[in-house]
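Researcher: Please predict.
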Amino acid sequence: MRNELEPYPGRLDKTVQYTVATVIAAIVVLTFRLPSAVLGVYYPLLLMEDTPASSFRVAKKCGLFLFFAAIWVLCGAVFFLGSPMMHFLWVVCTLFLACWLIEAGEDHAAATSFGIYVATGISVLDAPISPDVRFENILYILLSLVMGIAIFLAVQYVMAGDEKQNGLERGIGTRLLILRNCLELISEGRTPGRLLRRQLRKYFMIGTGRIRKTLLGLDYTRRVRDEQSSAVGLIGNMIEFTYSLVETPGQPVPNQQARLRGVVNAIDQVRADYAARRAPEPIPLPAPQPGELRRSPVYRLEYSIAILTQVYSSYLIADRVPEEHPKPKGLIRPGSVTNPATLRFAMRASLAAIFCYLFYWAVDWPGLSVALTTCIVTGLSSAGASRQKQMLRFFGGAIGGVFAFVAQIFILPRVQSVGGFSLTLAGAIFCSAWVFLASPRIAYAGRQMALAYEAVHLTDPYYNVGLTQVRDRVFGVFLGLVAMWLIFDRLWSRPAAPTMTQLFDETLDCIAELPERGSVEAVPALTRLRETIDGNFDKIRDLADAVLLEFRRDRAHDLISRYRVRSWMPLIRSIFMLRLAIMRRCWVDEAGVDDPRVAEAIATSTSVLQEIRGMATVDISKRPDPPLAARVVPIPKTTANEPAVVRIAASLATVSAYLREDVLLDLRGT
């Protein structure tokens, strides 16, 4: 947790931006006395991206869903509110639609905005108020949301820092610098200092989730996005290998100091080339030294930096490969209307929300209506991932409730001006935004901290002297979690571990299907295949985290499968990168693409991927014979004067051989 909360470049700036935007939005809401305007103050947190342009793109999609939600709620008030039975059927259809959009929408955050709005709208329609006030409140909610979005975009635009270096470049540069400094000290026979080790541990613990999310929001071409995504994955692996080398040094490998100095020099060259926007010279993949285990962190660092240079070397052919910007995605994924899995998901989540709706009206406790929002926003495809989000929502809401209690009892009674109220709000929101800007493991808790605090102090445009809203919110969240655990997790639910291993095998098949040559005309089809593979990598990583929150009878075997998948993924991603690098050179008929060693290396990688398919779930204790036989994988011989594509092909075969041996060692338990 300490590593998650430590500062990193750009974190303070983003936290200040959101805090300032929230305080300004709150002052506007209280000045004009807008009722039910808490969502307008909270909503900018959903839009926070690395740059104003990225935030504006997200805001456009969210705006479309919000206007659709407002029209939907108004239609419900006009046509269905007069009849209790028709109103209940409208509520059922509304909750089903909201849950279906979350699973079917192309942008999860934008689709969630529809669910948040209609959940609040249902509470407004059920309130014992006049039709005129009800109509005004529905429109006031929309007005406050539009105002909150506009204020945040304006604040971010005004306070935007150095636009020449975005969060992705800062993240890559910072990690490379830490790697370089650590490895330089080790190569000199010294131990990294406490501060440097602490920085290394921080980036090892938080991973690359935040920087990957930043990459998705940047307006890059597909080629550049592929290269940057590959680079982020490789640098994340190098952080892990260096952390292992620092914390558990073990027995030094042959020529360790000299080899690490070579890695340091290569990192310096990559940093210089990256800053100058030029392609580095590809480094050939080294062979392991005699007597050295291939699992050595030193060797892994050597091949990682070599693959990194080969990935970035595709800039050399940038002028000859057509640049293609990703086409704007629609609001709904194709095929979602008839997809049985999407319909089952919507049925599970909506049944949990309907149960909450019936329960809090049966006990005449409408303050528990926040349970509807809990069911809508915490529903995810796998039980483990959904449970992770549910726990973050509960603990985040509880912490935000504690902040609200403290402010309500000890601080606000002594405040006599808007300045004091704004400072109190700024302190709570600063803490919430700081947590939100951690890694995706705990970021969602930051949102819930902010929403819990704002729901107490900004739901009504006047000072609230009671504590019932805090109580109702905590109990409402708890009711939603109980409903999700009793209904959502038990109806057509599939655990995260089998989903992860099945997706892992499907990803292996997709990589094996990449053609040897291809053509420029086939770029659109290959782009779709690449996007599928990239998306699968992200889903597998999320599912691996969700496995930890599932406690099935086969938990021990699930954890073994998780370890195998996480251990093999870096090399599988490296094979994917190298296959793409070879394919790009084949598109432009670069010298050496017709060399038989290139086709041989591609065939080798395909056969290895097919061999390890299904190995993540193998139970060695139930199989007397080894599932994977030992064999020698052919590796083409190359020299420094060979064409670049031939050297990359040799690297592809070498990594494939290393992956097969790694799988074999894991299956043998060594």
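Model: The radius of gyration is 27 Å.
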